[in-house]
Specification:
Length: 179
């Protein structure tokens, strides 16, 4: 069985995972992967520019949810003292997933449930379609995620958690200088 400890010891960063005795394999088309990585890079830059001194923005950091459950959000905002941690064992302040057409339902349902139980205060899902970009924002309220915002296209979203920052979904799929 692939456990988080074995995964870390082997230095593996991607691939199949075992969740509740089911094997989950994430596949991403090459076309989306290029676009998704660009969105991750641009959002990482925007978040880093606004980030509080006691936090750090990390793309692809691992989270050890339980002994047998591991997740790796596309972006996580973590306490600065976690910078050297290989696998977070406490919730980050923010987890962000960039949804592809094939992962949208999983990100909005199963992954959201896992992040909610782990206690991540804020969870964002970015849908970076070329024709229609969307950011959906969830925040923990009494232990349950509540959708608190949705922004599309050029519409700005002004976050308060984990720090003040404004995001325009359309700016994440553009090339060139950031707005």
């Amino acid at each position: 069985m692939l456990t988080v400890a074995r995964k870390s010891a082997n230095g593996e960063q991607a691939g199949p995972r075992v969740v509740r005795a089911r094997l989950h394999v994430r596949t991403v088309s090459t076309r989306w992967q290029r676009g998704g990585h660009g969105v991750i890079a641009r959002l990482t830059a925007v978040l880093t520019a606004a980030c509080a001194d006691d936090l750090v923005v990390l793309p692809g950091v691992g989270m050890r949810i339980t002994r047998y459950q591991y997740r790796e959000p596309d972006i996580a905002v973590v306490p600065a003292d976690s910078f050297e941690t290989r696998n977070l064992e406490r919730p980050p302040a923010l987890a962000v997933e960039v949804a592809s057409p094939s992962t949208r339902l999983y990100d909005r349902n199963r992954k959201k449930d896992v992040y909610e139980r782990f206690g991540i205060p804020a969870y964002w899902i970015i849908e970076p379609d070329r024709d229609s970009q969307r950011l959906v924002v969830f925040e923990l309220r009494d232990g349950k995620y509540e959708q608190v915002a949705e922004a599309t296209g050029d519409e700005p979203f002004s976050a308060g958690q984990p720090f003040p920052v404004t995001i325009r979904p359309s700016a994440l799929v553009r090339t060139g200088a950031l707005d």
